[in-house]
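Help! Submission page says 'invalid entity' but I think these are all valid:
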Amino acid sequence: MLETRDLNAYYDESHVLRGVDLRVERGEIVTLVGRNGAGKTTTLKTIMGIVRARSGEVTFEGRAIAALPPDRIARLGIGFVPEERGIYSTLTVAENLTLPPVIGDAAWPLDRIYELFPILRERGRAMGTTLSGGEQQMLAIARVLRSGAKLILLDEPTEGLAPVIVDAIGDLLLEIKKSGITVLLVEQNLRFANRVADRHYLMVHGKIVDAMTTADAVAREADLLAHLGV
Ligand SMILES: Nc1ncnc2c1ncn2[C@@H]1O[C@H](COP(=O)(O)OP(=O)(O)OP(=O)(O)O)[C@@H](O)[C@H]1O
Ligand SMILES: [Mg+2]
């Protein structure tokens, strides 16, 4: 569904993505793991067109997208949930869910959103600012489903959340996967990654240095945790 080939990106003269090659098949959950500063967020931003690739290609459903502007990329069905979650803090939960532009037939109706996220119905009149971290993350994911994303790019969705909330987010991702949505997930929490993902890429200094199945990652957990420094 998604492929990057020899993707290179810079911030000014700083060469941050150094030939990133990765693939995500339809219906998979794939994680990108790596230490702070490895280039994980930049990879998601480059796929989304927010950071421009200086060279290399990104293909989505067989179509070259690296030269497209971010709004066109979003319209093809890629949703991005940034680390800061990107919800409107001065709008209510319900307003946050009615606002996203609904694109194509993949867009989830509100009823379906509320079925998967009953807490968002309960909290419908609450302002974004009053939500817990876990509720904010759920709202952010719900917004991209509402907009019709077929592929979701998630940047560290579990960061700062209590273990029981991390488990709830994991359950949600597994439900979303059942409905055919594809997820590329940046994650530092290896146990969470192993629970939800099919495969993992390990990124070091702007390069993908390893591709692992979840079984590989579980077998190498001690090594990986030492590398990640967590
Ligand atoms: N807007 C920016 N301008 C300049 N340099 C940046 C910018 N954003 C990130 N960088 C640098 O690019 C490199 C990769 O950053 P990136 O945010 O992609 O890493 P990351 O793997 O997501 O790290 P983290 O785990 O801390 O989120 C780092 O050296 C970072 O300091
Ligand atoms: Mg990051």
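Support: the input was valid. A stray whitespace character was the problem, and the output above is from the cleaned input. The pocket of adenosine-5'-triphosphate (ligand 1) is lined by residues 11, 14, 16, 34, 36-42 (CB under 6 Å).
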